[in-house]
Amino acid sequence: MGVSRERRHAGRAIRRERRRRQWWRDVARRLGVELYEWQIDVMVAQERARELGCTFVWVSRRRGGRMVMRKVAEEAGQ
After folding, report:
1. C-alpha span between 34 and 70 (Å, rounded)
2. Structural domain tally of the chain?
3. Cα–Cα distances in angstroms (integers) from residue 73 to residues 10, 18, 37, 44, 53, in the given order
4. 20: Cβ–Cβ under 8 A, 6 or more apart, which residues?
5. Which domain of life does the UniProt lineage start with (predicted)?
6. What confidence score (pLDDT) does residue 15 get?
7. What digits encode the pLDDT tens for the residues 33-63?
8. What is the pLDDT of residue 68?
9. Structural domain for 51, as ranges
10. Which residues pair with 54 in a beta bridge?
């Protein structure tokens, strides 16, 4: 079982996510809203899901906040 593609590009993805997080934080600050870390996680996950053509389902807090996404195609029954 080789290294997954996500793992291989993990560094790049993490950097991109950090930038995106910062962006959400700035937006929140401008709106005068205090966002919790997990809320930012959810925002970022939803954006990533949209990019990957998945639907974002939930963030599991128990397993270290892993994102759970489901392929839209599967849900459409294709």
Report:
1. 29
2. 1
3. 25, 28, 30, 21, 8
4. 44, 47
5. Bacteria
6. 79
7. 787 777 777 777 778 777 777 777 666 666 5
8. 64
9. 5-75
10. 71
- Residue 7, both tokens: 């793992």
Nearest Cα to Cα of residue 44 among 18, 63, 70, 64 = 18
Q: How far apart are the first and last CA of the chain?
A: 27
| pLDDT above 50 (res 78) | no
The predicted model scores a pTM of: 0.46
The b-or-e profile of 24-37 (16+ CB within 10 A means b, else e) is beeebeeeeeebee
* Cα 43 to Cα 10: distance, rounded to the nearest angstrom: 19
Q: Report d(CA 54, CA 66) in Å as an integer.
A: 15
Distance CA 77, CA 40 (A): 31
Two tokens, residue 27? 């937006």
Angle between helices 10-31 and 37-52 (to 10 degrees): 120
